[in-house]
TrEMBL record:
Signal peptide positions (record): 1-25
Name of the protein in question: Uncharacterized protein
Annotated TM spans: 75-91
Domain of life: Bacteria
Species in which this protein is naturally found: Amycolatopsis camponoti
Length: 102
């Protein structure tokens, strides 16, 4: 029974780690400063306002379609994982019943 609990715990932990979405994390943005010397004055730190390069233009319809496909693939993989876990648990139960009856 302890092995069964361990298998179920490992399966649940795997499912949680599998469904975690690292894409929802927000990127960290660094602040840039430049030292400027003016005459006899000491160096002053002036923030630089660099405009980032414009990224690619994403079509919302394609993004939604890609998200839908990704979600469907994750669901299929999850169902397959649960089915395989069920087969393993069922096989171990049958094997333990045969061992007890022998």
């Amino acid at each position: 029974m302890a092995k069964l609990r361990g298998l179920v715990l490992a399966g649940v932990l795997g499912a949680v780690l599998f469904t975690a979405s690292p894409a929802s994390a927000e990127p960290v943005r660094a602040h840039h400063t430049v030292a400027v010397t003016v005459g006899h004055a000491s160096a002053a730190l002036v923030p630089v306002q660099a405009t980032p390069n414009p990224g690619p233009v994403l079509d919302p319809a394609q993004t939604d379609k890609a998200n839908t496909e990704k979600t469907r693939n994750k669901l299929v993989a999850g169902v397959v994982a649960v089915a395989l876990l069920g087969i393993v648990i069922w096989g171990r139960r049958i094997r333990s019943k045969k061992a007890k009856s022998s």
